[in-house]
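To the team - 6-O-phosphono-beta-D-glucopyranose complex, inputs and output below.
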Amino acid sequence: MPPSIHELSSQFAVHGLKFEAGNGGLLKAVIRTPLSQGELYMQGAHVTNFQPEGQKPVLWMSEKSVFETGKPIRGGIPICFPWFGPLASDPKAPGHGFARTTLWSLISTQALSDGSVAIELQSEINDFLVKLDVTFAQSLQLTLHVELKKTATQPATFEEALHTYFTVSDVRQIAIAGLEATGFVDKVDSAKVKPATGKSVLFDGECDRVYLDTTATCVLNDPGFRRTIEVAKKNSSSTVIWNPWIEKSSRMADFGDDEWPGMVCIETANVGTNSIQVSPGQSHQMSVTISAHHVV
Ligand code: BG6
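Output:
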């Protein structure tokens, strides 16, 4: 049984954070402070809104997103874990793992003296104890901690992604800097491994690229919104860039046919050859800090 709004509120409401029934009746935390506004669904520990004071929303949400127990939410920051994409050993297993469709538990909430709000959640997935720390400040920070339980009998390998959907003025007009020197796996061209382009990422068709062995900060330059968004990460060696463009978005029931120009995903990840192996009792943590800046 999920906790009630009343139970969550009496244990975890703090200055700047309250609990509400969100879309589909799913429970969410709503953050409103002088620094930013935000929203986090308990299902999937899924951040669905982040808007720094004086700025447009940073995260994109599909108008067609489903909000149902056990179904993924389209937009915001889904957590992909313990695998990314389809599971090679079981094609029927849910894409991107089941962290994003699991109900997470709250561990703590805090209103910090600098005006930010911090939320800590956890979930048990297979033999892993998974925690997410989210801080809503002028920037948004997420840290995913993954611990293999001491009781596990052997080391385990996992993939992970903070699959962040950004809202953009028009994906055809933006550029993403930071990946110029990195080759990539091109998932729209038979997963061929392609060399570094030496240029920013620009968009003129479907894009689904897995950049491996890169810890670089990415900067999304959006002249239409006169802003840049910086995506800085720690302990993440993969970055995934995704826009489904026309045909793929028309095949997805939870993605509006005309919505693709308004979004792009920059995903902070450890996938493929960057998968993480942990021994029983050992843990790994990966973080991202997202900040938006006006361009004058
Ligand atoms: C991206 C993958 O990370 O997520 C794409 O690289 C995939 O291949 C996309 O289409 C969305 O996945 P899903 O399972 O949320 O539809």
